[in-house]
Structure prediction request, 307 residues.
Amino acid sequence: MTARMIDKVWTGIFYAVAVAVIGLLIFFFAVVLSKGAGFWQPEFLFGRPSNTQAGGGIGPQLLNSFYLLVVTLLLSVPISLGAGIYLAEYAKQGRIVGFIRLCLETMASLPSIVVGLFGLLAFVTLTGWGYTLLGGALAVTIINLPGLTRICETAILDVPANVKEGSLALGATRWQTLVKAVLPAAIPQMVTGVILSAGRIFGEAAVFIYTAGLTTPMLRWDADWGSQANPLNVFRPAETLTVHIWKLNSEGIVPDAKLIAAKSAAVLMVAVLFFNLAARLASSLLARYFSGGRRARRARGERSKAA
Prediction:
């Protein structure tokens, strides 16, 4: 068999694998969306759940999922960005940096159920908070930190060296070079990583079972800030959408528990798909903005008008 023939055979195999993966993904989406038909109805998305009667909604669980996502990102993004900057720009290669990388890789490989048990001990029992939204956010931050730190570090290291050298040659300090030249060039990759991490946080379940709890109080926007009924109180139990799906499938007693779980799964899948599409769109727009593509087109347009 000639080399050209071998190349064609392997190209055909790779195309077949790609088509199989895409087909499996489409089949998975079709099954989940067909079983959860009607998930887009407002009374389901914003309605209160019912423990005894059919027709409950997922309003509190959806709110808890998004609120936990925001709190987690507020905790994890600044820490990950600082750690990524340190590892990429300031850390000297040696045993200490090697130990830090080993710790990050170990944290990244921890099963979420183990992190959930640690969160139960640290953020529920030792602090005396009980099951809280903040405890869930802190626990899932432990899972999120290694990946986000590596993304920030890689994004900074991928910035071309001539960008840094040009800034330093113009008299900028190291800090000014980092803030004015390096970070803007690394932002598209960082934003992509943050949005993809958001999808993982939104779909997490095991950690929240042990830290955020399996229930949600009756929420009222007019409740006091310290009351557990206030939706923005981070020291209240917060059952997320993924935990709600698990509970419906394992111990749900409402007549339409399977249907509500299927609709909730469809909502979850659409949300994760939205996060992935948003990551690609944001990365493309930011890369175009920071590369000066829009300004270049505008300059070309002005030159053509002047001519």
Notes: The chain has a mean pLDDT of 86. The longest helix spans residues 257-290.
